[in-house]
Automatic annotation (TrEMBL):
Designated gene of the protein: 106095761
InterPro entries: NAD(P)-bd_dom_sf, SDR_fam, VLCFA-Steroid_DH
CDD domains: 17beta-HSD1_like_SDR_c
Protein name (record): Very-long-chain 3-oxoacyl-CoA reductase
GO cellular component, one term: endoplasmic reticulum
Keyword Oxidoreductase: yes
Species this chain originates from: Stomoxys calcitrans (Stable fly)
Origin superkingdom: Eukaryota
Length: 320
């Protein structure tokens, strides 16, 4: 009995030590990155010291427009890049009048080829660019099985990869060299929660966003010592035209609310959902995958998205 009690004390001490170690090494950093740091200290990067201009892609709506406005509010001049010339003119005028900064715009369709980057390069020449926000992107109209999706719209497969993957790599290739030369700069890449949790029925979209997240992480490792800040932002649902959510709520905030929160993490978190409710959702799903198994978590998400797909198909049938 004495041996058993000693053994139990050793096991108990070991268990407490392991739990304590997990709290210290995982929970406390999570707490600082997602709550304490952004709330108490705000962004640790002064974007205005990086350069006088910010470049934002997909800048006429949603998260891109919100980033452009927030960066202009901090005093940066803004280059807006999107495909709609009329929207670009409107947003550029709105930002210039509201924040007394200079604006430029470039109208290109990011589903195009190499020629669009030549046009962008020409328009950016001579600008002291301190911040790049790679926001432009495309998603599905509704969750869909890959075969049906790929066969019904093969061009969209090429377009979504061009908009979500090529845009990030080519825009970074255009702007990063000058940042490295002056040893300072910020690149914010908009990934998605879909890229870091299971996302069946949005397979191509989530895979492109996983690329953005991995690209950002490894790029940061390459250039951290050269004064470059690279951040991967992984939003959940935000009330934008892309998500078709009209009314913001706690778990689907407005783009303005989301971006203010995400910018508060700059220099604190290299990879983040950017908004506490989205962070909690990610943590729960990843936790389920860790505690049980990834297949179980995938099945939960699959069941939910399958219901979303069925509702969307019913609505389409009613319209017809």
């Amino acid at each position: 009995m004495e041996f058993d009690s000693k053994c139990m004390r050793v096991i108990g001490t070991a268990a407490v030590s392991i739990v304590g170690y997990q709290i210290i090494t995982k929970f406390l950093p999570w707490l600082y990155i997602n709550i304490i740091g952004p709330k108490l200290f705000g962004p640790k990067v002064d974007v205005c010291r990086m350069g006088s201009w910010a470049v934002v892609t997909g800048a006429t709506d949603g998260i891109g427009k919100a980033y452009a406005k927030e960066l202009a509010k901090k005093g940066l001049n803004i280059v807006l890049i999107s495909r709609s010339l009329s929207k670009l003119e409107t947003v550029a005028k709105e930002i210039a009048q509201a924040y007394s900064v200079d604006t430029k715009f470039v109208d290109v369709d990011f589903t195009g080829g190499a020629e669009i980057y030549e046009k962008i390069k020409t328009n950016l020449e001579g600008l002291d660019i301190g911040v790049l926000v790679n926001n432009v992107g495309m998603s599905y109209a509704h969750p869909e099985f890959f075969v049906e999706f790929s066969q019904s719209n093969p061009q969209f497969l090429r377009d979504i990869i061009s908009a979500n993957v090529h845009s990030v790599t080519h825009m970074t290739a255009l702007i990063l060299p000058a940042m490295v030369e002056k040893k300072k700069g910020v690149i914010i890449n908009i990934s998605s929660t879909a890229g870091v949790i299971p996302n069946p029925l949005l397979t191509v979209y989530s895979s492109t966003k996983a690329f953005v997240d991995k690209f950002s992480a490894d790029l940061q490792t390459e250039y951290r010592a050269r004064g470059i800040v690279v951040q991967s932002i992984q939003p959940g649902f935000v009330a934008t035209n892309m998500t078709r959510i009209r009314k913001p709520n706690t778990f689907s905030p407005s783009a303005e609310t989301y971006v203010k929160s995400a910018l508060s993490t700059l220099g604190i978190a290299e990879r983040t959902a950017g908004y506490l409710p989205h962070t909690l959702m990610q943590t729960v799903i990843i936790g389920i995958a860790t505690v049980f198994c990834e297949q179980f978590a995938s099945q939960l998400v699959f069941s939910n998205l399958l219901k979303t797909r069925q509702r969307a198909l019913r609505n389409l049938a009613k319209k017809k």
